[in-house]
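Section 3.1: Structural characterization of target chains.
Under the original work plan, the team committed to producing a structural model for every single-chain target entering the pipeline before any wet-lab resources were allocated. The record below documents one such target. The sequence was received from the expression subgroup and is listed exactly as submitted; it comprises 299 residues.
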Amino acid sequence: MGICDERVVIVTGAGRGLGRAHALAFAAEGAKVIVNDIGASLEGEGEDRTPAQEVVDEIIAAGGMAAINSDDVADWDAAGHMIEQAIETWGRLDTLVCNAGIVRDRMIVNMSIDEWDAVVRVHLRGMFCPVRHAVGYWREMSKAGTPVDGRIVNTSSGAGLFGAVSQANYSAAKAGIASFTAVAAAELGRYGVLANGIAPAARSRMTEAAFAEMMRKPESGFDAMDPANVSPLVVWLGSGECNVSGRMFETEGGKISVADGWQHGSVFDKGTRWEPDEIGSIVSDLVNSGPSPAPVYGA
């Protein structure tokens, strides 16, 4: 028996890295898993169904249930087909894990509009399209009087919460995912849907390229950067046992924390309109009265 017995779960970008680990972990907890992966390169180019098929084969060999899906998550119609596949294959959808992503790292002064658009498309649009189709399905169920126990788990990043040098496109997309998740939680609870996000630190094609030394596998002992360390939290957030919504969890190795997010700061109210030359001293006092922001990664 597992905490996801009989739940139907979609994991996007599940052919490698974190997505693969999530798919395997959900299956080990009894879920039926749609393994989505277009099989693109790290930069989002090309297609290869092999990695996703290997994950499906591994789940089935272990006695689980899984099916491959190679739809483009950022394409509106294709994302809809992915949701339909889960429903047609196993009769329903319970959990959607949005994990797919690419990187095209560049300093802002060198970044092209194509590099910006490609990353924002896969991360942000590629999260919205599947979520929008899934919540449409759950809303109709709720309106028909059928109990809904839906779960959304979105993948943000420390770069999205704090920023990362040479990753303005990635950071902006991941920040958008964090804000979207908060809004989704506020809007969808009435339909029986909980939405949360994760900002994981783990070994993947993305992080190995950017942080080679940090991500190197140790010769012995606990491998803190094994992506499988992140998956237990994702499985719990995607299970019927999850009872929180609208939160962003940072996770690395054996660590789990809840990110505190933006908070309203100190206020100075003049009671009338300001003159520009009055602003400097007030801003200085306001900045000094609050905590310093977390530093941008790589700064």
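The mean pLDDT is 93.
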